[in-house]
Amino acid sequence: MNFMIRNKPHSILAACALMVAASLPAQAQTKTLDLATASIAELEAAMAAGTLTSEKLVTLYLARIEAYDAKGPALNSIITLNKRALEEARALDKERKAKGPRSPLHGIVVLAKDVYDTKDMPTSGGFKPMATSQPARDSFVIDRLRKAGVVILAKLNQSDWYGVAAPGGSSLKGPVISPYNPKKSTGGSSSGTGSAVAAWFGTVGLGSDTTGSIVIPSTLANLVGISASHGLVSRTGMMWSSPSQENGGPMCRSVADCAAVLDVIAGYDAADLATQSSIGKLPEQPYTSFVSKTGLKGARIGVLREMVRSGPMHTEGTALFEKAIEDFKAAGALIVDPVDTGLGLAESQMLADAPRYEVATAINAYLAGLPPTAPIRNVGEMIAKGGALVKPRIVESYQYGAIDHSPELSAAMKHQAVMREALTGLIDKYQLDGLILPYRTALDDDFKATPNPPAASGARSENRNAIASYTGLPTIVVPGGFFASDGMPFAVQFLGKPFTEPTLIKLASGYEAATHHRKAPALTPALAGETLAP
Predict the structure, then answer these.
(1) Number of folded domains in the chain?
(2) What is the model's pLDDT at position 514?
C-alpha cells in the first residue's frame, strides 16, 4: 500500500499514519514510555493521544546532546544543529491538530550523516575545506523525509569523506567516541550516526555505505542498520564515492523503526538511474507489515561459514556467533550449516573494490551539482586547496583519469557479478530465506578513537566484511551481544537476494524479538523527564 502512496498527497499518507496508530494495542498507545527505548510507532501513538508533542521530543533530544556530545563523555557526534528545529516541530504539532499526521513519521526526529544535502544546513562530509558548503536543495532522501513530516535535527560527524583523519573521525570535528567504550569509536564511516542514535540524540539516523559504512557503525553502536538492495534508495544529492556501490539507509534502535524509514525513502528517482531496477520489485504492503516476533519460525537460513574466520583473535567473537546460531534454532529456524560459494569470499572480496577507480569521477559528479558559491567545485580544486589533507586514494583516482575503458574497474565489476551470482545461487540451491554471517569476530585496535591511531596490525583486514556493498545485495545487521573483554557490541548480519527486504525484515525482527540484545550505553544514562507518562 505504501508504495502507491509515496508520490500521493499528504492526506493519503495521513490516513496510513492513522491506521498504524489505530492498529496498536491499547496498552501500546497509553503506556509509560522511556525515551531510550520508545519506538516510532509508540512515539506516534503518544503524539496522537496528546501526551507528547514533536516540540517536546526535540527539546528532550537537545538536552541529551547538550549533556553528552560536547560535555560528559563528549561523543563529538554532531557537526551542525538545525537552528529552526523547535520552530519546525511546533509547526508540525499545529498541523497534526488541524489536519492529522502526514505519515507514520510525522513529528519524528531524524539525525543525518553529513553527506546528505540539506538546503538549510551545510554539507561538509566532515572535510574542513568544505565546512561552508551550502547546497541549494535537499537530497532526495531528506526531501522524502521532510515531506513525510520529520524534523531534521542535526548533521553528524563521520569518517572524513575526503580527508585524512582518525578512524571514525573527521578533519572538521575530530574523532567520534563510542558511548559503549570511550577509548573507541563507532567505526567508519557513519560513526556519528552510530554514536548519536545509540545515545538517543534522535529517533532515527541516516547512514551511507560504500564498503560497509552502515554495517560497521550499526554493529559497533548496537543498532539495527539496513543497507538495501542497490537501486532501492536514491543517491541524488548525496556525497558518494562509487556509483556502483553507494547506498544510503536507516540506522535505528529497532528493526521496525528501520522498516518505517525505508517505507518513506525507498523508490524510483528519475535523477538516479540505478533506481530503475526497483520498478516492479517493491512490495504492495509497507515494509513495517513484515515485522514479526515469530519471523524465524519455519525459516530456512544458511550459515555463510567462509566468512567466519579462525584463530586466537576470533575466539570470543566466534563463540558469540555460535550462540546466535543456537538462538536461531531455538526460535524455530532450520539452519543449513555450512553453505559455501567456493570463492574464498573473506580473502577475495577486495578484488571487487570498484571505488578505488570510481572515486574521483563520483566526487566530480557530486561537486558539479553544488551552487557557484561552493568552496570546491571539482577534484582538481580539492587537491589544490586541501593539499596533503586529501586522501591519497582520491589523488590516485584523479591521476588515473577517465575510467571509460578501465580494465581494472571492469575486472572489479566482473568479480562483483561473480560474487553476487554465487551468493544468490546458494540461496536458490538450498531454498533459503537468507544467509547469516557475523560482521566481525576479532577484537582489534582498528577503531581506537585517537588522533594518531596505531600502525595497522592487520586486524582490520581480518574483520573486513563488505560482501553486501560489493554485490549490491540487501543486508540487515541486528545486535547479537557484547564482547566481554572490551564491552563493544557484536552483531549478526542477514544477507538476501536483490529486493528481498521484506523477507530479511521478517527474519531480523524475529531474531531481535527472540534475543533482545539491544542495550542502552552506560556512558549516556537517561536524564530527568525522559520517562513519558501516559
Answers:
(1) 1
(2) 98
